[in-house]
Structure formats: structure tokens, C-alpha cells
Amino acid sequence: MRRFAFPGGKRFAFTIIDDTDVATVENVKPIYDLLHMMGMRTTKTVWPLRCPEGSKNFSSSQTLEDEDYRAFVVDLQRRGFEITWHGATMESSQRERTLAALNLFRATLGAYPRIHVNHSHNLENLYWGSGRVDNPLLKRLFESLAGRPGGYFLGHVQGSPYWWGDVCQQHITYCRNLTFDEINTTKVNPSMPYRDLERPLAKWWFSASDAEGVSEFNDLLHPRNQERLETEGGVCIVATHLGKGYVRNGVLNPVTRERIVTLARRSGWFPTVSELLDWMRTQHLSDDLPASEWRRMQWRWARDLAVRKLSLGRTRRRRENGEMG
After folding, report:
1. Strand pairing partners for 180?
2. Residue 319: strand, helix, or coil
3. What helix, strand, coil percent values describe the chain, rounded to 5?
4. What pLDDT digit, counting tens, does each position of 98-108 carry?
5. CB 87 within 8 A of CB 114
6. What pLDDT does 151 receive?
7. End-to-end Cα distance, the chain
């Protein structure tokens, strides 16, 4: 297992990549206030533009076109958080809207975003769906489960109305791909960030530890997992949605609060995602991802994805049967 000599003699590294789905000032400000108070500088994605065509699942989300949200995001950046990109808006965007959104992002925050994270089923996603993996069996399995054929996502396809891969390659440094149910992200992907010759429009790729919402986050950051992360000297980048249940009626989930406070008291380094990945690149012996590591990553991702889907299905059935109150 790879171990690092972290800055300042710290024993592990931890940060968060927060997808902006359903985020508003009201439902994420309390957790960002706590993260700031505890000295954790994490990374938040945003959508620059509203979605005039409407969005079934994400219409409650705020964007940089909302004055209070824009002010909140700019203040987060001032306080040391990293602000980055989850696409132009909550539904599919053709090239013209993507470029307009990037220009608004730069005008608001002073520079282009350094990280791109694909969103849901947006057609402009880069190398998404079954395009995330190379194993033919896993490609077919994912297409069957997701109901999205190969070639559905078009952001990397030159000539498509949704093409913007050239702009990504020019301005964006890191893209997120696979996620795992593992507190120590580098236990699964020790070579990250890595280059991928099959997906060249992203300069560098990185993996993350999956926590869809508050329940998964609280489970992932259980004290025994925190202890293991520190003992192993690992790196954890949590991919989550801080707008999904962390805050209710202005109050941060008490278990989440306890988990963050406990973690912050450990001997950890808590940088933004870009700062962490920049530093990890200085530790590289090679930029290449070993073929054996990539094979293991694909199968582990598929396994963890299947387990999450089964767990979600059981929870949904229990809720429908009135077993959860």
C-alpha cells in the first residue's frame, strides 16, 4: 500500500468534492461554516447558469445567476475553499451554453475552473456512462443497468452539438472518474492523479470515495474508518452532495457534526482537492496508470456500484412499506 510523507508531518489527507445538486445557500451554508471553523478547505462545484427548460430532479438548485448564492460562493472562495465546475447547468447543454457558462464562471471567480465533474445524464458529459471503463463485460453490464447505450454521452465527440472536449483540455486540469466504498481512496487507486491515453481530453484523472448523501457520509466517516485512514497514512477524497440531507431547517445533522469535529482533531492535512492533487503529482515516480491497477479499479467500481444499488433498492422498499419513519 502506498504511503505518503504529508506536508507538516501530517499522518493522512482528507478533503471533499461537493457536487452542487439541489444545493442552496440555506441547505449547505451550515456545513461550510463548520468546515471553515475546523480548518478544512474543501472543494465545491457550482452551476453558473439557470436552466430555463426546467429540471425534474434539480429545479430547487441555486446557480451563480442567483444573487445570494453567488455572494455565498464568492465568500467561500475568499475563505479558502475551492470553487469548481459541474457543467453549465443541471440539464444537458450544447456547446454554446457550455462556453457561456465557463465565461460567467471566470468573470465571477477570476479564473476558469480547475476540476470538472460530470453530472447525471447530461449529454455533454465527457467519457461517461460505459465510457468510464474499458472492460467489455463491464461496459455491457453498465449499459444494461443504466439504460444508456454506448455513445450516449457526447462531450468528447468532436462535431457533436455537445462537444466541448477541446475547451476542457485547454482549461481544466483534473476530471473525476471512478468512486469507491472505501475511506482510503488511494488504497484502490494509489497512482492518482493519472493520465489516460484512452481519454486524452482530460489532462489528469482522479478517483474518489463515494458518499451520495448524509447517511453514506456519516457511515464512511465512522470513527473506526477515520482511525484506519490515519493508521494507513492514506488519502480520502469524498465525492458527495452536501445539499442532500446534511442540513434540516437550518440545523446540521448532529452525527455529521460529530464526525467532522472528530476528524479535524486528528493529525490530518485538509487541503482543497486541486491543492491535494497538485501535491500528489510531485510525489509521482510515473504519470502512467499501471494496467493491473486499472483492471482492479474497474471491477471494484462495478462491485461497489452494484452494492449501492441493492442497498438503495432495499431502503426504497422499506420506505414504501412504511417500515421507515
Report:
1. 209
2. helix
3. 40, 15, 45
4. 999 999 999 99
5. no
6. 94
7. 42
